[in-house]
Design a protein that fits this description.
The chain has about 180 residues and is an alpha/beta fold. Helix content is about 40%, strand content about 15%.
């Protein structure tokens, strides 16, 4: 009796990556953005505030077919504000991508041509875009890595530089966080 259950458990564990990859949209944001529940916080999020946050994402995934981990941060923030009841209309998020993470913004065909594997960041990036998160790339990184705009996911915005993107978002009231 134990062997069939063990075999089933192993089969489910092996299927888990493909199940996770099949998730999209809000389900993927909730899954990848989940954090430990904190019952009755004594410093809760103010539901009357408008939150404007931008993160720098520079680190490439450990392996080319994996998710660039920095894209989890806005997913986590969306998860936490949802948990605390902050209306999404009051949450404005952005990621500024440069350095080795820049390749993660390439659409599926371009990424596969460049790396030989599927882009593990696309599903979350599409979910974040659908949730209203701005995805901004450094134009200098594009030039240095020889990535064309045509190779980028269609919703990616191109800034002159990461510094200019940070300065613009800061002037618009965004708090900017590094990686």
């Amino acid at each position: 009796m134990c062997r069939p259950l063990t075999a089933l458990a192993v089969a489910l564990l092996l299927a888990a990556p493909s199940i996770a990859q099949a998730q999209t949209g809000e389900a993927l944001i909730k899954k990848l953005g989940a954090s430990a529940p904190v019952p009755n916080p004594t410093f809760p999020a103010d539901k009357a505030l408008t939150y404007k946050i931008a993160w720098s994402v520079t680190a490439a995934p450990e392996k080319p077919d994996q998710l660039a981990d920095g894209f989890r941060r806005p997913a986590n923030f969306l998860y936490m504000t949802d948990t605390e009841g902050v209306p999404r209309a009051q949450v404005h998020l952005a990621v500024i991508v440069y350095g080795p993470a820049t390749k993660s913004l390439m659409h599926a065909a371009a990424y596969k041509a460049a790396t030989g594997v599927d882009n593990g960041s696309v599903a979350l990036l599409e979910a974040l875009d659908a949730a209203g998160v701005q995805v901004i790339v450094c134009g200098q990184a594009l030039a240095r890595l020889k990535i064309t705009r045509e190779q980028l996911l269609p919703f990616v915005k191109v800034a002159t530089s990461a510094s200019m993107a940070r300065a613009t978002l800061a002037a618009q009231g965004y708090a900017t966080f590094g990686q």
